[in-house]
Amino acid sequence: PHQFIELLPFANHLLPLPSLQAVGSDGVRISMESALTARDRVGVQDFVLLENHTSEAAFIENLRKRFKENLIYTYIGSVLVSVNPYKDLEIYTKNHMERYRGVNFYEVSPHVYAVSDNSYRSMRTERRDQCILISGESGAGKTEASKKILQYYAVTCPASDQVETVKDRLLQSNPVLEAFGNAKTLRNDNSSRFGKYMDIQFDFKGAPVGGHILNYLLEKSRVVHQNHGERNFHIFYQLIEGGEEDLLRRLGLERNPQQYQYLVKVGDTRASLYGWKPCKTSNSMWCFWVSQGNCPKVSSINDRSDWKVVRKALSVIGFSEDEVEELLNIIASVLHLGNIQYGGEDSGNAYITTDTQIKYLARLKSPLNLEQASSARDALSKAVYGRTFTWLVNKINVSLAYKGSPLWMCCIIGLLDIYGFEVFQHNSFEQFCINYCNEKLQQLFIELTLKSEQDEYEAEGITWEPVQYFNNKIICDLVEEKFKGIISILDEECLRPGDASDITFLEKLENTVGGHAHLTTHKLADGKTRKVMGREEFRLLHYAGEVNYNVNGFLDKNNDLLFRNLKEVMCMSDNKILTQCFDRAELKDSKRPETAATQFKTSLAKLMEILMSKEPSYVRCIKPNDAKQAGRFDDVLIRHQVKYLGLMENLRVRRAGFAYRRHYETFLQRYKSLCPETWPSWQGKLADGVSTLVKHLGYKPEEYKLGRSKIFIRFPKTLFATEDALETRKHSLGERVTYHMVLVDGRHLLSLRTVAWWRGILACRRAQRKRQAANTIRRFIKGFIYRHNERCPENEYFLDYVRYSFLMKLRRNLPKSVLDKSWPTAPTALIEASEQLRKLYMQNMVWGYCKRINPEWKHQLEQKMVASEIFKNKKDNYPQSVPKLFMGTRLNGEEINPKVLQSLGSEKMKYAVPVTKYDRKGYKARPRQLLLTSNCAVIVEEAKLKQRIDYAALKGISVSSLSDGVFVLHVPTEDKKQKGDVVLQSDHIIETLTKVAICADKVNSININQGSITFTMGQGKEGIIDFTSGSELLVAKAKNGHLSVTAPRLNSR
Ligand SMILES: Nc1ncnc2c1ncn2[C@@H]1O[C@H](COP(=O)(O)OP(=O)(O)O)[C@@H](O)[C@H]1O
Ligand SMILES: [Mg+2]
């Protein structure tokens, strides 16, 4: 018979999986690329592998090659460079997400999902907060990237029911914030006009459970003014285009953006002063005249459908209908405000009567001149919009807030999508702040990338020489330094009394920081620069390039003041949102609010702190052209970005050290087939394996270094050579496998190679066992953390384990006897079951015990039961009696006088005990016998039957609570036959009285007294026995004529 050697399982073990995929059809070209083999056709997927790494041209060429192939992502080490494709690439499907999930960063082609997944996994495995910093200029794709990352987490992270809503809310916060905070600019049709930092909180299971958003400096001026070709915030157009008829009627709006000056007018307030009237019918003349800033319709934006998305998102986030209405009311009011005309009897007045806030505003007309009134109106619009935006962010935060276990148990991934570096024809205060923010981020990038690189070398024990790079700290200082920084100077001008103006600010700049290498003004500039600068401009040499800022409006914008009476009016509004935005406390606070720039500076400093505390990943976005066009790769523009993003420096730093690094295990796993000693598996230490392997490959000492856990390879070509060798090896291995697949004739000889395969399998199994062990440990830890939760996939393994081990322990430690009350402590999950088990087990043990009992013992126990009922916790010497067996009788037949027995006749003797009787008078002690028959108790003196008490006549029995043996049998006084109660003493008082109680059926008639017992002596006289505790037992007549009994205390109570 022939025997097949199956190819598949063997081959699987022989070759690392990714490489196996790389062999074969065209469909796997992407993974070939990842295996670095297709590097020439689509460039290198990691710039560090670029041969000519100092050449900017080579860098850009690589970007271009990839861009043309729609490969928009490339790494520089762990930094992702992304080029905006300006078209849909179909690389964001669920399948793509799956492909990147849990896969090693380098095993798949570069993608923003790989960065997302890498951060997520680092967070999960190291439990360290992460942040992903997305930078790049306006329109480079930052916001899109942040959305992709969020979507990736929403789709791929584990979830529960509650988490679903959180995921929805996280996702839906985007369209809402974009509607209110984004606008079309010249650079980007959907430009974020605010900075956004978003924390996504993950619980122990790795499920997103909450979020928090920090917003930075909304460009409020856009509400009242937009540059030519730009728009106001999207929400205005969405509302007007998409709002239902009813809604618009309620808000007093018309479906025509041309109606609203804030949406169509030139930013210059003078336009309104000219007194033009907006006309409802579109008039081309009019359009020509006013269209400089007018841009309500944009082909790439569908306001109507966006409106639907926003409306739905608002509901998902948890806005009530009323809140939405109030919010939109504010938006509408801003539009109405913009239409207020002063001095003219504008048709806009019609709205004034419908809107209370505007009515109040109308009162301002008198004290202010036209220009002041207009600027007051605009200030109000900006304040209302700005504060509403902040309110909106807070509202979203409430909706995203995680209500579960404490926050410190969560891990966080922060996403920073903040306005990119921006240069326009005219740059104002906003651009100044935005670009300052970018300086700060660049500073952070420099610190963290360089620092982390150096840290790694240090951690691995590799010596390395620092690389020079431009540190932009000098520019940050120029802007933010206390007293001498630009912000301080601006604040000073804002706060000082007197005739401060934008121009005096400029002069002050010249006087204070005029000599700074990164600042110049028209006055200070050389002739060439002066030509391209306005007189009211100052120029900053940012790390990203030169920007001229026009000082006009700097003071006003920095002061950001609103007339006090306008604030008062706002506080009185019926609109609930506005009353939250304008707090009365603010009116009382006489302290001057911080200036806008200082507030921004402080919030940026806080942001830096937040980011520094986390492990960063970077996405560096590049804009391929200024025309927002697909497929256009503008060299000049890209070179500029590559330069200021510091990508070349980034690459240099990465390369100056080592281009390539891998953990020993990964490296060995991938290349072990290239060396006989390491193939198919290496038994010794990993470092030795790698060392053996690279020596066999002929690596020269300067080409690589071995760190503590990683190998560092200096040149890409070394790695390429190794990759090529691997490729060749795979083919030959493939052939050999095929060869062995051929039926081996007759006696199935095990060739040496088959032995090698077998060793491969063993190694593989070992690895599998290791993996399983690691999994078990991980599951166990997770289970421990969740042990108090309801049973869920995370803890079921742990709970089962705990149950199993408890039951096993219980089995070994069961109580041995009915008296053994020990029982192992049960884990929380088993408390109830354990209690049931304990009861069952006890019952069972008792049942077994009872079954084994003989009648005699049973009788004994019954008597002990009675004794316990009567005396337990009542008489001091009871505990001492418990372990002593009750005797059947204390006097046998010979010890009782036959005459006595005779006189008792047929009455059966049940118990007999020697007692002491105390005379009623004088309390003389006399030895007697107490006999119990079935009908009576008899007191006997030798042969004389001294007294017989029928049980029926026994009124009661009294005894003290002390340890003495004295007791009184009470008999009825009217019974003439009796000479009164009998005072006796027994050395076995518990036993004796138990017998009496049982024989006479008087269990309930035994009185246990404290202090004294009164008894009758016949003829109506009474005697008293006093009981006291003392050092020893003493029974004697006391001077007061009582019988005094002293008994030692045996048990402390
Ligand atoms: N990965 C991408 N795929 C397709 N189009 C993109 C991508 N990134 C950006 N874009 C396009 O570029 C525009 C601007 O991107 P955006 O993320 O808003 O820029 P930024 O936030 O950097 O200013 C988007 O509206 C979109 O049309
Ligand atoms: Mg953006």
UniProtKB/TrEMBL annotation:
- Region annotation (Actin-binding) ranges: 604-626
Residue ranges of domain TH1 in the record:
875-1049
Q: Which GO terms describe its biological process?
A: actin filament organization; actin filament-based movement; endocytosis
Every copy of the Myosin motor domain together lies at 43-727
InterPro entries in alphabetical order: Kinesin_motor_dom_sf, Myosin_head_motor_dom-like, Myosin_TH1, MYSc_Myo1, P-loop_NTPase
Q: Where does ATP bind?
A: G136, E137, S138, G139, A140, G141, K142, T143
Any GO CC annotation of this UniProt entry: myosin complex
SMART domains reported in the protein's UniProt record: MYSc (SM00242)
What keywords tag this UniProt record? Actin-binding, ATP-binding, Cell membrane, Cell projection, Cytoplasm, Membrane, Methylation, Motor protein, Myosin, Nucleotide-binding, Repeat
Q: Which GO-annotated molecular functions does the record name?
A: actin filament binding; ATP binding; microfilament motor activity
Q: Where in the cell is it found?
A: Cell membrane; Cell projection; Cytoplasm, Cell cortex
Q: Does the keyword Zinc apply?
A: no
Q: Which family does it belong to?
A: Belongs to the TRAFAC class myosin-kinesin ATPase superfamily. Myosin family.
Cite the PANTHER family for this sequence.
MYOSIN, UNCONVENTIONAL MYOSIN-IC
Q: What is this protein called?
A: Myosin Ic, paralog b
Question: What organism, scientifically named, is this protein from?
Answer: Oncorhynchus mykiss (Rainbow trout)
What would be the name of the gene that encodes this protein? Answer: LOC110503647
